[in-house]
Structure formats: structure tokens, C-alpha cells
Design brief:
- There is one protein chain.
- With 214 residues, the chain is an alpha+beta fold.
- It has 2 domains: 6-77, 3-Layer(aba) Sandwich (Glutaredoxin), CATH 3.40.30.10; 88-211, Glutathione S-transferase Yfyf (Class Pi), Chain A, domain 2.
- Helix content is 52%, strand content 7%.
- The protein has 8 helices and 4 strands; from the N terminus they run βαβαββαααααα.
- A 4-stranded mixed beta sheet has the order 2-1-3-4, with helices on one face.
- The radius of gyration is 17 Å and the shape is globular.
- Bound molecules: glutathione.
């Protein structure tokens, strides 16, 4: 990394923080990571990042929030391997896929978080919603092995992270949802493997903390 370092505010359990780590690793960049001082949403953190959300990235004087915006910003700077796409059509496609994951699939999975450890039955409608969005994603994607095609790109960052959330909810709530396609392709990338393992462990710890609260 050049003289100016990339500083990532992130937490171990945040899915969008995982997405950013995946993006930085795919780009082949190095970064330093800090937890949000005082926790996300704290007054202390909001003095640095007014939105109070993670991830946030500092690069020199610039502070950027929103995972897709951060990835596009790094592409715009020419830092690391580009992820958004090389031509207008692939850029538009990758952005649309990324929004489907962030705005549809991830919230539908997140809605099930309160059920973990509660003993409650997952409503069929909630499971069907997730399944419908996954089917839409499948219809919109080509032969792969990645969402972006032969090489991984913007939407793969989100799907890799969200796929791990799905995997852990599948286990905790016996959802019986199919693994997101591309999951094996992500695991096979040496740059991603340690981040996948670390996030998987963080999710397992979180599930355990809900199942047997102290
Ligand atoms: N759309 C944002 C979502 C970021 C987000 O919601 N992060 C969560 C943690 S996974 C957070 O900071 N939540 C605190 C809040 O929303 O106030 C992105 O893509 O970065």
C-alpha cells in the first residue's frame, strides 16, 4: 500500500463489513481495520462518521460510507483490481445485481435474526420471500462461476457475505434454503478464504450467544 493507508471502520459481525473485506481482498489491497470508537451509532463514532454505520473507509482526507459507494470510490481512484465493470453494460448489470442482494436478499434474511434462539417457527411466507429473491438472482446471472462472469466483481462481494449469513441461518433455523450459487467459487479463492472463515466463525459465535444466552 502507498503512503496513504486505507482505514476501515468495521465490526466482526456486520455483513456489510464482511462485504468490504471481501472487496478489498479481491482488489488485492491492504488495509488497517478499527472498530467504530464507542460502537456503531455512538456519539463518539458519529463525530467521525455522521451516519454512524459500518463499514466506513478513510483514505487521506476522504471518508466514504455505504459499501457499494466505497467499492466504486476505490475503482474511481484506480486502486486495486477494478470490481464494478469495464464497460457501461457490465457496470449497470453489476450495480443492479448488487442492489438486489443489498436491498432484497439481505433484508429478508435479516428479518429472521430475532427468531434465532427464540424457538419460534419461521413463517413460511418469510422463507418464500428469500427463496423468490434467490431465484430472481439465479435467473439474472449467467454461467458463472461468479455473478460477474469469469472473474469476481461488485455483486460477488455482497453475495459472498450474505451467503454466509444465509448459511448460518439455514443451520440455526433449519430453513433448507439452497446454498447461493457461486459459494464454492468464493471458497476456492485463496484471497477470500481467511475472510470467509473468520466471518463464518463470528456468525457461529453470534448464533451460539442467542441459543444459550448467559
Ligand atoms: N447500505 C449500507 C448498510 C450498512 C449497514 O446497515 N451497516 C450496519 C451493520 S451491518 C450498521 O451500521 N447498522 C447501524 C445502523 O444502521 O445504524 C452499506 O451498504 O454499507
Amino acid at each position: 500500500m502507498a503512503a496513504t493507508e486505507l482505514l476501515l471502520y468495521a465490526t466482526p459481525i456486520s455483513v456489510y463489513s464482511c462485504k468490504l473485506r471481501i472487496a478489498l481482498a479481491l482488489k488485492g489491497l491492504e488495509w488497517r481495520e478499527l472498530p467504530p470508537p464507542g460502537g456503531y451509532c455512538s456519539a463518539e463514532y458519529k463525530a467521525i462518521v455522521p451516519q454512524g454505520t459500518v463499514p466506513a473507509l478513510r483514505y487521506g482526507d476522504a471518508l466514504v460510507v455505504e459499501s457499494d459507494t466505497i467499492i466504486e470510490y476505490l475503482d474511481d481512484l484506480g486502486l486495486g483490481i477494478p470490481l464494478v465493470g469495464t464497460d457501461p453494460a457490465s457496470r449497470a448489470r453489476n450495480r443492479a445485481l448488487s442492489r438486489l442482494i443489498d436491498l432484497r436478499i439481505e433484508p429478508a434474511l435479516r428479518a429472521l435474526f430475532p427468531l434465532v434462539g427464540s424457538g419460534a417457527v419461521v413463517p413460511a411466507a418469510a422463507r418464500d420471500t428469500i427463496l423468490r429473491h434467490l431465484e430472481t438472482l439465479q435467473k439474472l446471472t449467467g454461467p458463472g462461476p461468479f455473478l460477474s462472469g469469469n472473474t469476481s466483481g461488485l455483486p460477488d462481494c455482497g453475495l459472498c457475505a450474505v451467503g454466509l449469513v444465509q448459511e448460518s441461518l439455514n443451520e440455526a433455523l433449519q430453513l433448507g434454503l439452497p446454498d447461493p450459487h457461486c459459494a464454492q467459487a468464493y471458497e476456492a479463492l485463496p484471497a477470500l478464504a481467511p475472510h470467509i472463515q473468520t466471518y463464518r466463525r463470528a456468525l457461529q459465535d453470534w448464533v451460539r450467544s442467542k441459543e444459550s444466552p448467559r
